[in-house]
Amino acid sequence: MGNTFGSNFRITTFGESHGGGVGVIVDGCPARLPIDVDDIQHELDRRRPGQSRLVTQRDEDDRVEILSGVADGLATGAPIAMLVRNKDARSGAYDHLKDLYRPSHADYSYDAKYGIRSWQGGGRASARETIGRVAAGAIAQRMLREFAERADRPAPEILSWVDQVHTVCANVDEASVRLDEIEADPTRCPDPTAAAAMTSAIEQARRDGDSLGGTVRAVVRNMPRGLGEPVFDRLEADLAKAMLSLPATKGFEVGSGFDAVTMTGLDHNDPFVPGADGPDTPTNHSGGVQGGISNGADLRLRIAFKPTATISSEQQTVTRDGEAVTLAAKGRHDPCVLPRAVPMVDAMVALVLADHELRQLRNTIL
Amino acid sequence: MGNTFGSNFRITTFGESHGGGVGVIVDGCPARLPIDVDDIQHELDRRRPGQSRLVTQRDEDDRVEILSGVADGLATGAPIAMLVRNKDARSGAYDHLKDLYRPSHADYSYDAKYGIRSWQGGGRASARETIGRVAAGAIAQRMLREFAERADRPAPEILSWVDQVHTVCANVDEASVRLDEIEADPTRCPDPTAAAAMTSAIEQARRDGDSLGGTVRAVVRNMPRGLGEPVFDRLEADLAKAMLSLPATKGFEVGSGFDAVTMTGLDHNDPFVPGADGPDTPTNHSGGVQGGISNGADLRLRIAFKPTATISSEQQTVTRDGEAVTLAAKGRHDPCVLPRAVPMVDAMVALVLADHELRQLRNTIL
Amino acid sequence: MGNTFGSNFRITTFGESHGGGVGVIVDGCPARLPIDVDDIQHELDRRRPGQSRLVTQRDEDDRVEILSGVADGLATGAPIAMLVRNKDARSGAYDHLKDLYRPSHADYSYDAKYGIRSWQGGGRASARETIGRVAAGAIAQRMLREFAERADRPAPEILSWVDQVHTVCANVDEASVRLDEIEADPTRCPDPTAAAAMTSAIEQARRDGDSLGGTVRAVVRNMPRGLGEPVFDRLEADLAKAMLSLPATKGFEVGSGFDAVTMTGLDHNDPFVPGADGPDTPTNHSGGVQGGISNGADLRLRIAFKPTATISSEQQTVTRDGEAVTLAAKGRHDPCVLPRAVPMVDAMVALVLADHELRQLRNTIL
Amino acid sequence: MGNTFGSNFRITTFGESHGGGVGVIVDGCPARLPIDVDDIQHELDRRRPGQSRLVTQRDEDDRVEILSGVADGLATGAPIAMLVRNKDARSGAYDHLKDLYRPSHADYSYDAKYGIRSWQGGGRASARETIGRVAAGAIAQRMLREFAERADRPAPEILSWVDQVHTVCANVDEASVRLDEIEADPTRCPDPTAAAAMTSAIEQARRDGDSLGGTVRAVVRNMPRGLGEPVFDRLEADLAKAMLSLPATKGFEVGSGFDAVTMTGLDHNDPFVPGADGPDTPTNHSGGVQGGISNGADLRLRIAFKPTATISSEQQTVTRDGEAVTLAAKGRHDPCVLPRAVPMVDAMVALVLADHELRQLRNTIL
Question: Does the distance separating the beta carbons of B1 and C118 come in below 8 Å?
């Protein structure tokens, strides 16, 4: 259980890091939506390992196959199943991990839950699981664009970037940052100075057998108004769930986030002023949601990722039999997940928005 | 849509701040669970307005009536419906708000979504909506205790408290703090020095026509191992959603949260050591969840609440017709929601854990 | 669990025959739908006991109270909670049933499932539970009418009637039968001759301490095309579930039903001919659905109800302790549920159609 | 939407008759359940085309590949994805159908709903879609057996067979019929005389360019008591939905079904007598469910299938442009779907029972 996300635009993912492959079923995609396999592949390429020396060197080309639900380049309304085969799954590389629990990995907790685990490369807890999400997210993005076009409004623009790695903070203007700036550097940090410092820090961490965390920021411009379903499926609640369902996430903020704590109501409230298309808010501490519903202002999110649990330094741990042992990780891994997290965040935002667009349709008829 | 929470222990809430009342249906409560109306009323009394001069003076006794699903003090397996009537609903007090949008309230976004709103006292966006959650949470707590007793393990102990108000931070030992310490002060801050400073700050804010935010921390001791359903219904993902579905929340952390960002893997990883009942982790940056599943360590959460949007100072805003106006709030309100947020956080944690306990049953048979 | 029905137009019911009351939460009702409490009360009055000497004489006026979700006669988009208090619940009348299992009632199976039961008057298994469905169904009917009006098409007309009681079969022209003809007789059989014979049969059954079953037929004219969600939520699948979820139902047919078995493909296939608004089918063995999706032809259903389990003749049964005893039922009951089943069938059809109308919206944008 | 079935043992299917393949994701399978690919393949072979001259000659070996969720022959708790590639998909054979609507097929209604369709071989409406269900059903069956073993009770035995084809009715003793008797004849009718007559009738229908319908009966022996979740997810309601979600079904009965109509309460009620393991019912008009919950008696179902819509005789129909045309079907098809429907019915029964077994766990703790 727990492998389905979304209520009306609904995805179910499957697959482990080692085995036949990973993938997703998208159910609820509006019929006749153009489905372009290149769009999907493009997003998968963004999250693919081996893109730069900053990330894991596992050699996967991650080619997606659309198994169903598409005819003549259009969604038929039937479920869209997509499969990415595993290729470079060196099971042998994990033999030494079979009977022990890597610290801060899912090894022990999976065992505690299931009494069994796919111990090879993280199994279902591997970041490889996110392939299905990213593939589905590309379809969600397309849906958002097409719906906007039909309604004659600008398409929602979802942009995520690496905002901080360890102590290196980027200086980015949320209002103007562009995708090409984000993609210009392997770090996916659009501030070139910070990007260079992040690169150095990540490479140093790798040399030290250590790893680094960081934050991703996301904004959505041209946000449709009225998305979010109080009280439990508030837009920020679904986004928080989406983000915390990504591997290695530890925190979530919308708008002012934890900074709200030291502000007062007078400072924090976003005054309304007359706008072209309903009221505007010159400030945006709300982050684009009020009462769980989007108000048309930019959606603003920030997500904390912990340092990768896999490090090559020695660590203390225990075996399944409860014996203390010393572990030194082998195998390939990212010393910092942040650059590859960006397309995952994009995908999850798109999936949440697409779901809420469909849920909001009921209120547009009467 | 969006008024149901939980998969197997499932609640559906209803009601607005003004109207016939608020309440909840609990579906999925195990048959023969003892249901004690006093337990439920006790939790409702904790969230009730008018408990102290720190919170809104709306006069509601919030007596709960159990409409169904209970016989001879035991759950029958049928849905448990609970109703709390509204009493002190002075609709007239909101007449001046009918045609304008209060800044950082849900007034505008509800209108944008629904094209209509219950403008009296916040309607569905009112914190009064949480009554149903708190009532259901009391039942969830009881379920957790009874399940633990049957399994001969200590009952999960859910404790939340006010950890910060504006710039006043409490000094609390998470490992030892007790419920009676939390309940000892109307602030629900168990650090008496900080509690006094918080009280002063809140009273000053009220005098200033202003409001304050803060953070709530929650821990769960005696956590059952194995709760959480990867990949989307990870325990922390469901908790994040639960917290961000509460009014006025802006941020969520599990374990190290945003502090993880500036740590390295070597510092952040929680080494395993042999324990009495499976491996232990002397540190707990993970916050009790690894790979989305509880590992038996204490669950550790932190939630950011913004300053109350309702303030009595003058603010700029617009009417429904798009005209700029000046608003000065009348009516009763909390200058700081934190003290009353504590039982809401307790309830949401309990609801998530109860749901995941039921979901985990499947893995206990074979 | 199991007390929620529908995916997008979703109801959750609660309540037992004895206790605080019965009711429903409707979640997903489109905002600004007119909600007329008289419409709702009218449907409740149709299912109310004591309407005629054919049905149980339990004295309930079944007045509905709308607790939430409506402002100025319009749905606000918030959940609509409705409550009907129990009034004439003579618990004492059931004391003799406390420790024994009435044949073909839910007494034993509830005990087997829950280990506890509300033994008074059937508890949750009572037909009184359907009050919430009927109230919600009235709202669903209104939604169907309003949606049709906005789309400038004739409103779907849902008509159910008693087609057979025991061996008395009605002769009704499905294409022309009208609501006033159905409501003209307490049997809800629009064939006056058959209605008279049914009345005699039911009265005789009551005198004999016995009970009778029968069938209800339902048609929906002006069916919207394109409703139904293959493969599991085919329109007929959701309708079958809806009908078999009603108390005392034993069988379901769509279109030709079991008569299809002895037809051949050549006879059974409905040839298409050019029509005004898409192809028409001069025959309608399909019953308005093909491949799980409505094709615009009339929806045609037939539902079998067993004879009421409660009879006043003596029966053999056992106690909770497994002792054989003889039971003679006291208390009030219907010797034939069919007349009161009609508004229940109407409601369930309306709920299924409303849900599928909302689900189909996704395919209307691109 | 609509491609997911089940609440706790949940399947999502995908795939069309022509395209990359068909398959299923099983989510909620208890960890450590033995997963034997041969068991699954065995069930797929039972529904496979080309088994005998009675069924379609499409040449598919329908080899299943398990993509995920299994390690060392055991379910890991992760979603189990299974894929069957399409092989003998002669798209060209359907070219003449591209622009016309076959009578009583889903061609028109899919177009009305989606505005697009996979017109090759029925697309998603093809019986080929049921492959995923049958594969998942084999896992559900295994779960039922293992759960029974752990509880030291006999395993539920699910048996379906062809009971009637056109006017040929079988004479089968429900209480004693065995799987090997059912599998002994390609008709899957365990009455050899009737089986021979059915075979003749089917072969004659093929020669006549016609097709035949029929009924499948199903019984479940050793039924667990207490399965079913009132009020909407009554066991018979979920079974009715399951059956009506199968292609070509038109009717459903549980227990006495439509025969209940002409019985009286005195005849129809199943008296309770003391039994070894709770009360027994010497008669079983209830069909094993009372009040929506299994009572331990055999589950008894009957399902009506219409004659196959595909026939080779000429038929009148219309094109997408609304022009009247004459159609003579080419391509391969079954003149009677009944023999291959049997494993589909088995699978759906198993899926419903497995789901309800998991849902009932909550009531077994206290």
Answer: no
- What residues does B319 pair with on adjacent strands? B100
A·D CB contacts under 8 A: 150
Judged by CB atoms closer than 8 Å, whether chains meet at D363 and B77 is answered as yes
Those residues with Cβ within 8 angstroms of residue C161's Cβ, 6 or more apart along the chain or in another chain: C170, C172, C177, C182, C188, C189, C190, C216, C217, C342
Which residue type is seen at D272?
F
> Which ipTM was obtained for this model?
0.97
Residue D161, CB-side half-sphere exposure with 13 Å CA sphere: 29
- Whether the pLDDT of residue B94 is over 90: the answer is no
List of chain A residues whose C-beta atoms are within 8 Å of the C-beta of residue D33 = none
**β-pairing, D168-169 with D214-221?**
unpaired
**Which of C3, C10, C72 to mutate: most B Cβ within 10 Å?**
C3
Judged by DSSP in three states, C161 sits in: strand
DSSP C203-229: HHHHHTT--B-EEEEEEEESPPTT--B
Between B159 and D92, name the one with better pLDDT: B159
CA distance B250 to C99: 54
The pLDDT of residue D55 is above 90: no
Subunits that touch chain C (at least 3 Cβ pairs < 8 angstroms)?
A, B, D
Facing residue for D358 by CB, picked from B146, B147, B362:
B362
Q: Looking at chain A, which residue has its C-alpha nearest residue C355?
A: A362
User: Maximum Cα–Cα distance for chain A, whole Å?
Assistant: 67
- Is the CB of B230 inside 8 Å of chain D's CB atoms? yes
**Number of residues that this document lists for chain D:** 366
Q: How far apart are CA A107 and CA A94, in angstroms?
A: 12
The answer, for C361 touching chain A at a CB cutoff of 8 Å, is yes
Q: Residues of B114-144 as b/e, b for ≥16 C-beta within 10 angstroms?
A: bbbbbbbbbbbbbbbbbbbbbbbbbbbbbbb
Binary contact (A311, B254; C-beta < 8 A): no
Q: With a cut of 70, which residues of chain A have pLDDT below it?
A: 55-58, 88-94, 118-121, 329-332
Contacts of A241 in chain B (CB under 8 A): 232, 237-238, 240-241, 244
Distance of alpha carbon C221 from alpha carbon C288, whole angstroms: 10
**In chain C, what residues touch D109 (CB-CB under 8 Å)?**
225-226, 228, 289-295
pLDDT band at C18 (very low <50, low <70, confident <90, very high): confident
The three state secondary structure string of D312-323 is CCEEEEEECCCC
Asked whether C329 and C56 are in contact (CB, 8 A), the reply is no
Is the dihedral angle over the CA atoms D164, D168, D169, D172 positive or is it negative? negative
C-alpha distances (whole Å) from D211 to each of C10, D17, D314 are 40, 21, 13
Closest CA to B127 of B334, B351, B302: B334
Residue D132 touches partner A, C-beta closer than 8 Å: no
Tokens 């949008």 belong to which residue? Answer: B101
Closest CA to A241 of B226, C275, B345, B233: B233
Contacting D residues, span 5-34, partner chain B, CB-CB under 8 Å: 8, 28, 30-33
pLDDT of the residue at A352? 98
The C-alpha angle B170, B176, B179, rounded to 5 degrees, equals 75
User: Measured between CB atoms, does A282 come within 8 Å of chain B?
Assistant: no
What mean pLDDT value characterizes chain A?
94
- Please state which of the ranges B242-251, D44-53, D309-318 shows the lowest mean pLDDT: D44-53
Query: Stretch C237-255: mean pLDDT, rounded?
Result: 98
Task: List, for residues A223-257, the tens digit of each pLDDT value.
Answer: 999 999 999 999 999 999 999 999 999 999 999 99
Whether B43 contacts B135, CB under 8 Å: yes
C92 half-sphere exposure, CB direction, 13 A CA radius: 0
Interface probe with A: pick from D9, D14, D83, most Cβ of A within 10 Å: D14
